[in-house]
Known about the structure:
Elements (H helix, E strand, L loop, with lengths): L5 H16 L7 H4 L9 H11 L5 H10 L13 H9 L40 E8 L2 E6 L8 E5 L7 E2 L5 H13 L15 H9 L5 H9 L9 H6 L9 H13 L6 H5 L7 H14 L1 H10 L6 H13 L5 H9 L4 H10 L7 H7 L5 H13 L6 H4 L2 H4 L3 H13 L3 H13 L2 H14 L5 H8 L7 E2 L5 E2 L6 H10 L4 H6 L6
Antiparallel strand pairs: 1-2, 2-3, 3-4, 5-6
Amino acid sequence: MKSSHQEQIDRILEKLSQVRAQGLSCFGSDQHHFELNPPIQERLLLEFENEYRVRLPDEFRAFLLYAGNGGAGPYYGIAPLPIIRSKILDWPFEEPFEKVLDLPCPLYFRMKQASDWESEFGKTDPYQGTMYIGTQGCSYYMLLIVTGEFRGRVVYVNDDDGSTPFITHEPDFLTWYERWLDELLAGYKIFWFGMGVGGTEEELLAKLKNPTTSDLDRAEALRAYWRFPKISEESKALIPTFLSEPDLEIKASACRMIRTFELRTAEEPVGELLSAPTAELRREAIWTLMQFNPQRWSEKVSRLLYDDDQDVTETAFQTLKQAKALSRTRLLQLLNEPPNEGVLYMATYTIEWLSEDLELLLRLLEHRNDTIRFYATLGLRKIKALEAIPIVIPLLETDVDPLVRGSILHMLGELDSRQSRETLLNWTEKGDDDARLDAVDGLCKLGDERVIPVARQMLQETRSPVSYDANGRPCGGNINSIGYLVDQSLQESPNKALRKLSSKPGF
């Protein structure tokens, strides 16, 4: 029996053929090559649904049965049912996996972005009633809502940073999938496919010109323009007019598109947004103006380094740095009178340290921020601050950050002194795996033959080093063995006796 969605399935298969024939590519297509797997047998689909006591959304069922059991699709493609099932078995919550899909999904369209978004659902797991259908790379993946009010919609999730899930605009899987093909064939920018409303330029123009369109829909329509490689003169004239709208989201979206399409006639009204009431608008204005004319706007943007909002100050810093508009004098001022920790961190990373900065670097070594202390140690190494050795050695005992400790040990291996050598020799035994390796490496660089007994012993260690974070928890380390890493240090030593210990001695 033919599916009621057969006509759409046929269109999708034809468009996939066109994409292949035209030799198109997009993010992830090197994995699926725009090819679908063979369709699934209906009995296997029914077995899956019976096991989980749920009927999958009709559009997704039709795709599996008449198009393919996974394969080509947005990002890295659509997962076949066995992979989907394996993801369900990995369900980390208390409900037995048979009930994962059976519970109503509480997620809803246009959820507000918030760091504590999960608290809205109380004890209800926000991902119940959803199932994995594919990855977008790294910690990003796609879910399909199979129960609840928004059944059938695709959801984008970042499993790493806790950001709010994004429910796509399309009402069902097939419409979302066909939009992907339509945008590919139209030559649209496709990297962040589906993150926003779809539609052609003509359709978006109609929304923007319609007086009954809501502010939220107009803001989304404006943001959606980024997908187009070029736009009409009508759109170019219309977009800047939205800077005079009272709605702040509309203003921000218009500013973004002014930058995207380099509508330089709008530079003056964008300049007025540097004093806008919201941080988002000020940031959009900074990015746009510094892209258009950094020489003209650098002074005004520089004042925003002391803005009340840290995101604004960091945006100002980044754009000024990119424009090479941050002098050493200005960076030193920011280091001595930092507006906030974010700017201090970026200035510590950016400045070209000189020997005259020793006192400042030593002061930064006392900062509570681990990354600032780490960059301070890099600065000391850059200026070869031998006089700082007696000051940094005690920090090995008190600083809990492994990057800071590691950098200090590297510093001791770069700046030769009796204290450096004695401390490194001590840390070949007292530290964790990473510290021992850093200490051995430092002694090898200095050519100190007292490391030979330790090196011989560590060359026999076949396990990978175990590293620890600042809280003492084990974390991912080097995949190579301890013996291999010691061998590398020996090979690079200036001391012939140490090089001879290596399995590949160099002379």
